Amino acid sequence: MLVNLKDILKIAEDKSIAIGCFNAPDLSCLRAVVRAAEEMGQPVVITHAQLHEEKGLCTMDEVAPIILWYAKKANVPICVHLDHGTTLDYIARGLDIGFTSVMYDGSELPLEDNIANTKKVVAMAKQYGASVEAELGSMGARGGGFGGATTASDDDKRVSIYTEPDDAADFVKQTGVDALACAFGTAHGFYNTVPKLDFERVSAIRKAIGGLPIVMHGGSGVTDEDYAKVVARGVRKVNYYTYMAKAGAEAVSNRQYTQFHDVLKDAEAAMKENVKAAIKLFSAKR
To answer: What residues pair up with 101 in beta bridges, in sequence order?
Structure first.
């Protein structure tokens, strides 16, 4: 069933869990996520990111109607989310098409401009009954898993680009967003080293924003134990794609095929199992 992000986040908050948010740049990824969610009996968020088009993948006009069709037919709650939208025109198009949630990413802008644009997005989304996520801080390359390798160590931790609790409080108060993506040690893409997460920062942000759900981007490479710690501190949505896509690639990398549809079938099956494992991890009782 098709729902918005507020509905998803309420489920997460009531159960003190996080809900997985998965990219669907093509039909194989989409079917893997929907089938995994239905087999697990758990809600999910399915996304199309603006960067997908910059990478030569499906356009929003091509893929959004298919995602919406699957979401409406699913027997679990599914939010269809526009991820990392960087222009107001693009977000407006997404709302017109039927996205039930949008993310405005003004993280590379000065704080004042990020707030001003986010307020405009919140006003637009309200007309459609859609939810809004925004980002404060910087997690490196945008796009939910399409970045390159990332080194995450104490030596190169740049606190200046991490989300500051006081800024987060002001941001949420001024914009009225439904969820806030925060920077506390993760980054998009693969890691060269194990990421070092600032758990106390997560707790401080959660307190500063009055319990508003925190979103974690760049979850690849994070240990099960660290996931448990951030969820306990208020992370309610986890964006996850890189290792899902990697699982699909690995499933077909050492096999010989004579027909392309068999490649897609095997990759989809592997991605589905990877998504099921992620859903189980994020929704574990703690």
So the answer is: 81, 131
